[in-house]
Amino acid sequence: MPANDLNGRRGDFAAAPALSGIRVLDFTRFVSGPYTTMLMADAGADVVKVEPIGGEATRFLDPKIETPDGEASGYFHRFNRSKRSLCVDFRSTEGRDLLLRMIPQFDVIVENFRPGVLDALGLGYDVVSEIAPGLIYCSISGFGQTAGPHRSDPAFAILAEVSAGVVGRTNRLDEPPVRLSAPIGDLYPAAMAVAGVSMALFRRERTGEGAHIDVAMFDALVSLNENAITMSATTGREVRPAGRLTYTAPFGIFEAADGYICIAVLGDKVWHRFCEAIGRPELAEASDLDTGTKRAASMDGRLGTALADWLSSRTRQQAVDELLAGGVPAGPVSTPFDIIDSPQAVARELIWDVPSYTGAVVRTPGSPIRIEPGGFATPGRVPAAGEHTRELLESIAGLDDAEIDRLERAGVIASWSPSRQESTV
């Protein structure tokens, strides 16, 4: 039920996940949108994923995972736990009208089509806000809904990243630009979308008003790149990419005997601790190392040599343990396998076993947001395409079996039956 109907029932949700009772209609594909709605589902929201007939495109993308029923898309399974699937041809008049009939029963819509696509289909904010004035409508796009020469450009994470200047910040000057392996161009805008929806829901509690949230991947990543942009704009000098910082050291990734570690020396207090930890206290008193800038310059000289000599006789863990014992921030550079069963990940219950409609269990990172009391919703399974079509049309649209059967025969909707272990899509 829409959150406006929850007034007077707050005690029912006192120990429930934070978004319990919030219903979300999910018109998203690929990564940024599905990750947004998955985080909301983790927090207890009832997320209904609207898919075209045949299922969302990422159901068919590599890499594949082995399941009891054959192969399935690992790509799709990463972002679609705990959702219900509704397959409807929303590009058809009858499919659109069916969704418009259901929308007043939802609190939130999230979509990540190119600007104008849902408007052209009669499902844009101007239309749905007339029939559901308290609705929170969140649009995620590459360059924003309202203005700018790139408004209509297609956007994937890497395009947003290069446009916002975050690619090539970590490589050395003599190297071509290097992209981070994690799709920050999708995941960071998704986090901003969750924040925006949460703000709008909070405001609606006080005013009863809905909202249109406009999250541009470009905007989010420009804000993420605040250091380089602020310093360039303020000083008039371009902050050029570099493999290490120029105003403090040691600060970065360094090689030990069996792999790499991170060391973060920032400020004179930590610098003195670092010198003690590596058995070189005299470095702390050296006049040519008495500022962060001088220390950064010396990483190609005696400071870099002293650190390399010390690390060469220690494993990753030995070096990290000694530095931490001395009060110096440090940590091993981890691989995915290092993380999965690490004591920290286990203690935080960070890796979840998520069931799938295929019968497989997918091990994947859980929600990074912890709210107590209430915690998380129990991870729900990744749905089959159209798995919940019939129940949703009955419970939300109020259709009977005969009308649902007619719509399915007409190709307006599609459903899936677990008992048949096959889809009608």
Automatic annotation (TrEMBL):
Alphabetized InterPro entries for the sequence: CoA-transferase_III_domain, CoA-Trfase_fam_III, CoA-Trfase_III_dom3_sf, CoA-Trfase_III_dom_1_sf
GO molecular function, one term: CoA-transferase activity
Coiled-coil ranges from the UniProt annotation: none
Alphabetized Pfam families for the sequence: CoA_transf_3 (PF02515)
Key words, A-Z: Transferase
PANTHER family, alphabetized: SUCCINATE--HYDROXYMETHYLGLUTARATE COA-TRANSFERASE
Protein name (database record): CoA transferase
Provenance organism: Gryllotalpicola protaetiae
